[in-house]
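no rush on this but wanted to send it before i forget. what follows is a protein written twice so to speak, once as letters and once as structure tokens for the fold. mainly i need to know what kind of three dimensional shape the backbone takes. thanks a lot i owe you, the record is right below.
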Amino acid sequence: MIDIKELIKNPQFYKNSSKKKGLNIDSLIDELIENKIKLNYLLKKRDEIKHTLNTYSKKNKPSSIEIQNLRNLKVELKKLENEINELNNNIRVNIKKIPNPPLEDVPQGNSDKDNIVIKESNLYKKDNLDKDYLNICFEKKLINIERASKVSGSRFFYLENKSVFLQLALLEMTLNLLTDREFINRIIKENNLSVSNNSFTPILPPVLIKYDILEKLGYIDDNSIEFFKINDDNLVLVGTAEHSLVPYFTNEILDKNNLPIRFLGFSSCFRREAGSYGKDVRGIIRVHQFDKIEMVSFTFPENSLDELYFLLKIEEELVKILEIPYRIVERCAGDLGHPIAKGFDIECWLPSQQRYIETHSCSTTTDYQSRRLNIKYKDKNKLKLVHILNATALAMPRIIACLIENHYNDGFVKLPKTLNKYLSFDYL
């Protein structure tokens, strides 16, 4: 969430920045400020009453008038406490409705249609295939959707035979690269980035998290992800490993000498995807359950932007290694979720549909999530909020679909050479 002190200092900035994200919440902001000013007044009044009561309590024999005053003050104090609690609750709920302001250089726009292409690879883009990845997978017995629908319903699938080894190879390759200091150093040097060469700590995180933790991440406020809930236990299935990695240090003070702390989490991900339609729901592009490797970074505010570009360059390098045509787009303000201040997507070429599909996202939430989760570091005896970033390493179903179509030729899928050392076969 935002800092309410900053909101009071410059309400117009937050009104304007919210409009950039498609929200007109001027009246909400005005009400918040009014309630905060009223709260401060009531808190001062409460302290004065408590001081008076404390003074009375030190008297040995208060007069009857003083005793009555004491009773009246206690009644007033109880009334004040109720008003303070009500205002606090109102402020706590409404401050979460104000999105993280987009950074100054974020392009304006209303939706993903207004995102800006900033780079396109020079790899050859295949012409329209006579069969898509799904038909190829059916032929080679790599995916089974029909039997998954009998067991789990629509938008589920079984990975079978060689596709299982392929997914595990992609996972092993990514884990090896991102935990390798030489790889990290190369990314930093080639892109002239001012970031640490700390490698990533691999983590297999839980896929169920508490609902109140999810609230603190900020994705419930904008409904950007539709979660599966387990109401009986007040738990939620994560939409990405990020949802259980970001809260890892909740209510902790980090050692500044360890920053940036980088996590690489692999987990199954669960999304309701209600209202989705079209070609993407037929196969494994838009499903209820999929596997993904996610990067999360906790870093210094002054290094936040360089860290964002560092994560983006890692994403790009992974796509290059897999020899898939791609483009990088910068997300406009209207396409940024509540917590995000700046973000990019990488889209990979899907020949059967003659279009790019999103396979990676990368974003900084600045201190929006760390303020909610109370994650800080100590700098010269002063506590400061860390900046938290997240990025996709590989989202398995989509990258597998793009990999298959872009490497399909004459009835075979010839896999990129990089995967050879992780597999006992060269073709699907």
Observations:
- Residues 112-422 form a domain with the BirA Bifunctional Protein; domain 2 fold (CATH 3.30.930.10).
- The mean pLDDT is 93.
- The longest helix spans residues 26-57.
